[in-house]
């Protein structure tokens, strides 16, 4: 257990350190006695020697000890307190640890029978709130405190079993104790206020969490390129039975009956990574609610709120309705294998049709028959290569026209590995290529815009 921040020293009492007076048993749970006098390895940081200082974040302190507790300035009669299992804290931590647009602080609110843990991105445009049930709380005693997200994660990682928290409003200090281990945290730092959708919200749709998660994941295949591009659209569109997004050279969408037809909901692509992170940890139904200025996704114990912003007009979906000049079905793993082989040294690839005459007499009626196969070919600054996409077959069974463009290998690679079905359909247009997959409850499609041949 190690920490890199500073401003506070913590000392682990050694055997020679006189024990401090233990707090009343009614205030904190008593430590479990050890018959051999040894500390429990599961409850103590193995890397620390007695009296070794630990550097923690500003305003935070830990004290470690077994049996009699180290001296910690606990209020004689704490104004507020609650007890919660470390496993419940771990669940809150998993849901509120946002990666994109860093959210450094948590907002903890304790009310009658509930703990609400809320995190808001630095720009104040996205909030995730998760709740956990509490036992034996006083309905007349409630409090709120801002808490460092890293310290919260360290508590979760270190402790097991029940943890007792007490809050001193005079010093704005939150203290905790578990199996003789104690710590405290106080702060005057300010975090972005959590977003609220207001009272005038309307539930516009309810759909399974897995469907929404899969849909957003598929639609945001090219979110990184969209953030870097200069097109005026920066959203993920949820509506008309689809979830769609992309950038100038590649678009992706997910179609499912459970996705609402209207109204259209826009998820800003800047929030897509965080929303996917939270959705991947949820199950059960998700309600989509719309307010005057906010959008909310509501699960049983989690609410995701973001400000209404971002653009993705319905006209962009016209890219999925271009005339198809040829179609071919491949095994998904064969397409993935071929693209991986060329992605090592290529930036652009093209699909070509290779032809030959079947001159083997053993082929009987196919003797002297024209055969063909699709190959994937590419050129890099210092390399070139090709790999087959399909086996040899009759030329009449293959699309012979339309292969007049090249594709970005990175986009083709992302599209191929997003396919979850055994087969993928390649539809050729005069402007690019569709990769389509169909399953009983959903369908996916990506459109890759081609450029001039190599």
Summarize this structure briefly.
Helix content is 15%, strand content 35%. It has 454 residues and is of the alpha+beta class. The chain folds into three domains: 41-186, DNA Polymerase III, Chain A, domain 2, CATH 3.10.150.10; 202-316, DNA Polymerase III, subunit A, domain 2 (DNA Polymerase III, Chain A, domain 2), CATH 3.10.150.10; 322-449, DNA Polymerase III, Chain A, domain 2 (Roll), CATH 3.10.150.10.
Please describe what this structure looks like.
This protein has 454 residues and is an alpha+beta fold. The chain has 3 domains: 41-186, DNA Polymerase III, subunit A, domain 2 (DNA Polymerase III, Chain A, domain 2), CATH 3.10.150; 202-316, DNA Polymerase III, subunit A, domain 2 (DNA Polymerase III, Chain A, domain 2, Roll); 322-449, DNA Polymerase III, Chain A, domain 2 (Roll), CATH 3.10.150. Helix content is 15%, strand content 35%. The protein has 7 helices and 26 strands. The chain has helices spanning 86-96, 149-158, 209-219, 223-228, 269-279, 332-343, 409-417; strands spanning 60-63, 80-85, 105-111, 114-120, 126-133, 143-148, 162-168, 173-178, 181-186, 202-208, 235-239, 242-247, 250-255, 265-268, 285-290, 294-298, 302-307, 326-331, 348-358, 369-379, 384-388, 393-394, 407-408, 423-428, 432-438, 443-449. The strands form 4 sheets. It has an 8-stranded antiparallel β-sheet with strand order 6-3-4-5-17-16-15-10. It has an 8-stranded antiparallel β-sheet with strand order 14-11-12-13-26-25-24-18. The longest helix is centred in the last third of the chain and has 12 residues, at 332-343. It is elongated and about 90 Å long. The chain starts with 59 loop residues before the first strand and ends in a 5-residue tail after the last strand.
């Amino acid at each position: 257990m190690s920490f890199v921040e500073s401003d506070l020293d913590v000392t682990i009492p050694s055997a020679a350190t006189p024990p401090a007076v233990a707090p009343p048993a009614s205030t904190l749970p008593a430590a479990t006695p050890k018959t051999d006098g040894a500390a429990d390895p599961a409850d103590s940081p193995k890397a620390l020697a007695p009296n070794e200082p630990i550097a923690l974040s500003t305003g935070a302190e830990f004290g470690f000890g077994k049996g009699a507790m180290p001296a910690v300035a606990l209020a004689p009669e704490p104004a507020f307190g609650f007890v919660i299992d470390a496993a419940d804290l771990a669940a809150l931590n998993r849901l509120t640890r946002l990666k994109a647009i860093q959210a450094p602080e948590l907002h903890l609110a304790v009310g009658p029978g509930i703990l609400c843990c809320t995190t808001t991105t630095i720009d104040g445009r996205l909030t995730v709130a998760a709740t956990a049930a509490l036992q034996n709380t006083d309905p007349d005693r409630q409090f709120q405190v801002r808490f460092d997200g890293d310290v919260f994660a360290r508590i979760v990682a270190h402790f097991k079993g029940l943890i007792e928290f007490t809050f001193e409003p005079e010093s704005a200090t939150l203290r905790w104790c578990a199996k003789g281990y104690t710590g405290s945290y106080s702060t005057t730092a300010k975090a972005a206020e959590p977003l609220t959708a207001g009272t005038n919200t309307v539930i516009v749709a309810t759909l399974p969490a897995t469907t929404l998660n899969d849909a957003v994941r598929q639609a945001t295949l090219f979110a990184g390129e969209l953030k870097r591009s200069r097109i005026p659209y920066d959203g993920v569109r949820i509506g008309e039975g689809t979830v769609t997004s992309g950038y100038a050279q590649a678009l992706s969408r997910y179609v499912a009956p459970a996705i609402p037809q209207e109204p259209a909901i826009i998820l800003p692509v800047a929030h897509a990574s965080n929303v996917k992170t939270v959705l991947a940890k949820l199950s059960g139904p998700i309600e989509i609610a719309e307010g005057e200025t906010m959008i909310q996704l509501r699960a049983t114990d989690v609410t995701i709120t973001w400000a209404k912003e971002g653009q993705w007009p319905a006209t962009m979906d016209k890219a999925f309705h271009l005339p198809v000049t040829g179609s071919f079905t491949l095994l998904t793993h064969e397409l993935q294998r071929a693209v991986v082989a060329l992605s090592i040294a290529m930036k652009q690839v093209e699909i070509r049709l290779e032809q030959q005459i079947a001159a083997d007499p053993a082929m009987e009626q196919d003797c002297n028959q024209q055969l063909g196969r699709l190959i994937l070919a590419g050129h890099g600054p210092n390399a070139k290569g090709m790999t087959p996409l399909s086996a040899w077959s009759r030329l009449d069974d293959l699309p012979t026209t339309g292969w007049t463009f090249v594709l970005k290998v990175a986009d083709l690679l992302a599209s191929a590995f997003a396919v979850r079905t055994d087969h993928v359909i390649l539809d050729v247009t005069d402007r690019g290529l569709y990769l389509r997959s169909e399953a009983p409850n959903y369908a996916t499609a990506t459109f890759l815009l081609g450029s001039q041949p190599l």
